[in-house]
Amino acid sequence: MNATPARNDVQLGMPRLPAPDYPADVRARLEADAKEVIARYPGSRSALLPLLHLVQAEEGHITRTGIRFCAEMLDLTTAEVTAVSTFYSMYRRTPSGDYQVGVCTNTLCAVMGGDAIFEDLKHHLGIGNGETTEDGAITLEHIECNAACDFAPVVMVNWEFFDNQTPRSARQLVDDLRAGRTVEPTRGAPLCTFKETARMLAGFPDRRPGAVEATGGAGPASLIGLRLAKGEVAPGHADHVVSPRTTADGPPDEAGPSPAASPDGGVPPRRDDAAGPADEEGK
Amino acid sequence: MTVAAEFGGPSRPQAGGANSPEKVLAPVLSAFWDEPESWTLQTYLRHEGYEGMRKALAMAPDDVIAYVKDSGLRGRGGAGFPTGMKWQFIPQGDGKPHYLVVNADESEPGTCKDIPLLFANPHSLIEGIVIACHAIRSHHAFIYLRGEVVPVLRRLHEAVREAYAAGFLGKDILGSGLDLDVIVHAGAGAYICGEETALLDSLEGRRGQPRLRPPFPAVAGLYACPTVVNNVESIASVPAILNKGKDWFRSMGSEKSPGFTLYSLSGHVANPGQYEAPLGVTLRQLLDISGGMRPGHRLKFWTPGGSSTPMFTEEHLDVPLDYEGVGAAGSMLGTKALQCFDETTCVVRAVTRWTEFYAHESCGKCTPCREGTYWLVQLLRDIEAGKGRMDDLDKIDDIADNINGKSFCALGDGAASPIFSSLKYFREEYEQHITGKGCPFDPAKSTLWAGTDAHLGVNA
């Protein structure tokens, strides 16, 4: 399921020459970083995933040069490194945009509107799953469950949370990104580029002032239970119907607050292609 | 569609009543998430942070293990294995390094508890790690965080830095003689790495594929050394147990499922979110205090603990949500991810999408799972699109049966669960897709913004 056939680079006959190395100054800088990462682990090979994030931070995707670098640093073959890099979906195999826009289309988000958002964005940007806009700003992808179901539908940009999205808000989001306007997630720090994000994933903390503090302690949905337990009513909520009953006896229903979801709408496109976001294969 | 008569009146829970939020809920881990800087060490210390660690470090390691075992804490990652017993399995005096690996690869569809917990209160995990490492005599702990949650990665980096600076990590912690290093390790996108042995392979820099067991990680885990793999919430629950006592912990929940836990309500409910409560609360109670389903709609099906746990329906609203209660009703407590879908949702669409997920995430090691999930997707897509045949229903049931229990890990079992349970409760709906040659549902009605007129005029 994980193998994706190589595209146009099938070669017969002579094996390919080894990948070129990084320029000397880049190599020296990356080597220093790599050694710092490797030193954290009791076994050096454990540093492979972080090192792949590191070379992705350099070039925006995993290149043959990056694979060669990881192999040399860890005393592995390039085949071993390639086998690992192709297993994980966060490693890109082709050049792509500064902003990775991922729309969750796993069941819950899909049903809550993720399918409509994804279809709408494909149409709005004129690109398909995994493709990049011509200006190199945005790579659009559908993603799997990102552990934010209580904020559905969820869109991730460079792996920061954009909660409770609608087609309209998602369109605004990508328009802002393409126009170079500042975009702030609902949970997470002001956006940096995909390469800068990859460096954090390699294990180098975000040093930007205010990045850790950004958007506060917890999102509103995370706090609802706590607020109710404290006798508060969740903000902006009004009374309304309660859950259905299946038994005739038992205590009378009690109602709590309800959300004023303030949806801003946007027309969900028809789902004319039932397969939708799932027709692409592989990771 | 709506069945207004089925819904109660617009009453409000009585303060102090048996079903009031104050009685039903029990915030412990989430108790101060609403503070302005809840994630900082300073805030954590104001709320008795690292007190449990002080108590644990004053105890002998074996006594800590016995204490956690006596508390009855069970794993919060899905399987519910007693945490103290897992620690006890680590051989002592074997001369090998021991490791603690925290599974923060939260990826099970519907599951969304560890990520908000780590975002709002990462120090509860760090403190739990120190206690656990003292107990199992480990000097190295790893937090394997899924890579796709950078805001949480940021907070974990910061929490670990703060803990080192305060002397809660590093050499000779608080003069106890315990040396401990904690490494935050970001994954790279693979659901299978939430399976503990696949996680270990991934942490060793390999493709994340499950290992054959035995040997279990307690004997041969990371680098073939004794290793405890625990879920985030399990470890984060330990400090409160040490600080407030096992009897306090046992005062919540039941004999076999004691304590508090995070329930994650999502989907077509009025107020999706995190609800921390004693184990054994029912979905009806949670819906009652939280405003029920979204206005004018009723519950159709729900999962008790993520997509891998067989689905429930309205008839299960009163099932106690603890390990025994959910098990007796034919499902699993799992991760307490209560995904609620109302009558506008097509169950065939839901199951098809989950199945596509399992097919995508199958690591490919075991044939039944790799091939079975692929063929399930083909058949389900046809059924959803109205191109299925009646005997396809027996066929998907048969394929699911050929996956279930026949692979190295539980991913295949998880893929079979929605098939079995949806056929059990909603076979008629599958048949409708076949006889009606299409899906009778309108997906627009299920969306967050359904029923509002805000969308009018924007269909440019």
UniProtKB/TrEMBL annotation, chain A:
<keyword id="KW-0001">2Fe-2S</keyword>
<keyword id="KW-0408">Iron</keyword>
<dbReference type="InterPro" id="IPR042128">
    <property type="entry name" value="NuoE_dom"/>
</dbReference>
<protein>
    <submittedName>
        <fullName>NADH-quinone oxidoreductase subunit E</fullName>
    </submittedName>
</protein>
<keyword id="KW-0479">Metal-binding</keyword>
<comment type="similarity">
    <text>Belongs to the complex I 24 kDa subunit family.</text>
</comment>
<feature type="region of interest" description="Disordered">
    <location>
        <begin position="236"/>
        <end position="283"/>
    </location>
</feature>
<dbReference type="Pfam" id="PF01257">
    <property type="entry name" value="2Fe-2S_thioredx"/>
</dbReference>
<feature type="compositionally biased region" description="Basic and acidic residues">
    <location>
        <begin position="269"/>
        <end position="283"/>
    </location>
</feature>
<dbReference type="InterPro" id="IPR002023">
    <property type="entry name" value="NuoE-like"/>
</dbReference>
<keyword id="KW-0411">Iron-sulfur</keyword>
<dbReference type="InterPro" id="IPR036249">
    <property type="entry name" value="Thioredoxin-like_sf"/>
</dbReference>
<dbReference type="InterPro" id="IPR041921">
    <property type="entry name" value="NuoE_N"/>
</dbReference>
TrEMBL record, chain B:
<feature type="region of interest" description="Disordered">
    <location>
        <begin position="1"/>
        <end position="20"/>
    </location>
</feature>
<keyword id="KW-0411">Iron-sulfur</keyword>
<protein>
    <recommendedName>
        <fullName>NADH-quinone oxidoreductase subunit F</fullName>
        <ecNumber>7.1.1.-</ecNumber>
    </recommendedName>
</protein>
<dbReference type="InterPro" id="IPR011537">
    <property type="entry name" value="NADH-UbQ_OxRdtase_suF"/>
</dbReference>
<dbReference type="InterPro" id="IPR011538">
    <property type="entry name" value="Nuo51_FMN-bd"/>
</dbReference>
<keyword id="KW-0520">NAD</keyword>
<keyword id="KW-0004">4Fe-4S</keyword>
<keyword id="KW-0874">Quinone</keyword>
<dbReference type="InterPro" id="IPR050837">
    <property type="entry name" value="ComplexI_51kDa_subunit"/>
</dbReference>
<dbReference type="Pfam" id="PF01512">
    <property type="entry name" value="Complex1_51K"/>
</dbReference>
<dbReference type="InterPro" id="IPR019554">
    <property type="entry name" value="Soluble_ligand-bd"/>
</dbReference>
<dbReference type="InterPro" id="IPR001949">
    <property type="entry name" value="NADH-UbQ_OxRdtase_51kDa_CS"/>
</dbReference>
<keyword id="KW-0285">Flavoprotein</keyword>
<keyword id="KW-1278">Translocase</keyword>
<dbReference type="InterPro" id="IPR037207">
    <property type="entry name" value="Nuop51_4Fe4S-bd_sf"/>
</dbReference>
<keyword id="KW-0288">FMN</keyword>
<dbReference type="Pfam" id="PF10589">
    <property type="entry name" value="NADH_4Fe-4S"/>
</dbReference>
<keyword id="KW-0479">Metal-binding</keyword>
<dbReference type="InterPro" id="IPR037225">
    <property type="entry name" value="Nuo51_FMN-bd_sf"/>
</dbReference>
<dbReference type="Pfam" id="PF10531">
    <property type="entry name" value="SLBB"/>
</dbReference>
<dbReference type="InterPro" id="IPR019575">
    <property type="entry name" value="Nuop51_4Fe4S-bd"/>
</dbReference>
<comment type="function">
    <text>NDH-1 shuttles electrons from NADH, via FMN and iron-sulfur (Fe-S) centers, to quinones in the respiratory chain.</text>
</comment>
